[in-house]
Amino acid sequence: MTAATRAPSAQAWAEAFAEASNTDPEIEAHGKYFTCSWLLDADERSYVVQVQSGRVTHVTVDSGPLDVPYDFAIRAGVETWRGFGEPMPAPMFHGIWAASFRRDMRLEGQVLVLMQNLRCITRQIELLRVVGTPV
């Protein structure tokens, strides 16, 4: 795989992210009960990732606040998300807990759903090193 690069458009990134997630062996192994919708909010853009039994069924780009429901949100600024997309992230850009303690990342909504799916969500965030960052 190549180093992370920025996607040419929001929709192209959404498609690449869904493909990477749906073909990832780790998510396939752990994702049988991975069913939720979550918001990746990057200030300039937002994405609602809908997952059913470990497969991304749809990624909505820049939905309105009431258009697509989600269980929880992971919100961070552009620079934080770009840090996650580096092939070897700097300290505090390697995981959502580190970024929420030391960077501007916020976890909101039904955190229980996040915790129930933590390994798969963590793996999806790690896939930013493959598909690039959403902003």
UniProtKB/TrEMBL annotation:
Q: Which protein, by its recorded name, is this?
A: SCP2 domain-containing protein
Q: Which domain of life is it from?
A: Bacteria
UniProt organism field: Geodermatophilus pulveris
Cited Gene3D superfamilies: SCP2 sterol-binding domain
The record's annotation in SUPFAM superfamilies points to: SCP-like
